[in-house]
Write a structure and sequence with these properties.
By secondary structure, the chain is an alpha/beta fold. It has helices spanning 9-17, 30-46, 63-69, 82-94, 106-110, 132-142, 158-171, 188-196; strands at 53-57, 74-79, 100-103, 117-123, 143-154, 200-207, 209-211, 216-218, 226-233. The strands form two sheets. The chain has a seven-stranded mixed beta sheet, sandwiched between helices. Strands 7-8 form a two-stranded antiparallel sheet. Strand 2, helix 4 and strand 3 (100-103) form a beta-alpha-beta unit. Helix 2 runs parallel beside helix 3 (63-69).
Length: 235
Amino acid sequence: MIELENIDLNEIEKFSSRAKNWWDLEGEFKTLHDINSARLNFIIRNIKIRGLHVLDIGCGGGILTESIANQGAIITGIDASKESISVASKHANENNLEINYLVSNAEELSKNITNKFDVITCMELLEHVPNPLSIIKAADKMIKPGGHIIFSTINRSIKAYALAILAGEYILNLIPKGTHQYEKFIKPSELISWCSQYKLKVNDLSAIKYNSILRTCSLSGAPDVNYILDVISND
């Protein structure tokens, strides 16, 4: 049974109902496909992940998970949506990738796992849960001393509201309407402060700059919309 305390069931249903579209490069999740190379580049510029044990929290259909597996990591992907995990598992099998997929969430997994993973990723999830700090706490429990935890999320700024919600959802229709709620966006300073409560030290912070016209992505500029953060466990 999945721990439900930090799960928004409406969010799970939203993504479960769209699960069949995870690997449609021109579908509802095309933006995640477009930014995936930038997310992976951020990871591998900080960590040599070949042979490392990696956990991808909120893996969805496995877009990033598969990219990490292709780098030679030993990876587990978890998501609270069984429909998303089903799609992810099927796609990995079709591509002969060994990925351990589980229907679970960070809190539930951390009940029985301590200091196991070298790297933990949590991409575009914190802004979809009731208590982001709960995920940080669970990740801190599961990471090895000196291990890296990487979060990506959206800044709570006027520019982010204009681009991620108004333009992204209502003008350009890049993602389905209602995907984001502005009040759940997280300022970098807030995320860093939460991480510091668990003695997680900032190693790298970068903007994820997305050009919706060219559908290109880069790790440049100020983190005023999408951004990615790498912290290291000192425990």
